[in-house]
Amino acid sequence: DTDKPKFIAMLFRAYIDNKIDLSEFFKYSQIINRSFLPDLMGLSKYILGQTVTIEESSSLLSLGLVEVKTKTQTNNISLGSIGKNNQIEFILNPLGIKLHSLINLKQ
Fold it and tell me: What burial class does residue 33 get, using C-beta atoms within 10 Å of its C-beta: 0-12 exposed, 13-18 middle, 19+ buried?
């Protein structure tokens, strides 16, 4: 977790540079603080279009950085509607995309 203070510093720089407001700074800082660092580093997989497993996505989903979608539809689905026959995928949502760009994760 030694990278977390560096990520918070990057967020603070983004706040100073008016790229994010104070509430966004607090929101992203809280997400980083609550995250498991290897999962956070995995945000790049979504940007690169690499396959991401349910196990890799579950913590990012709970942090609000990814969304669950059916592979045949573009509408969001609720977790309660996921059945055995539905194929799902996890995609980075706008919050996750912005956090990825703010902390400059390597792609």
Answer: exposed
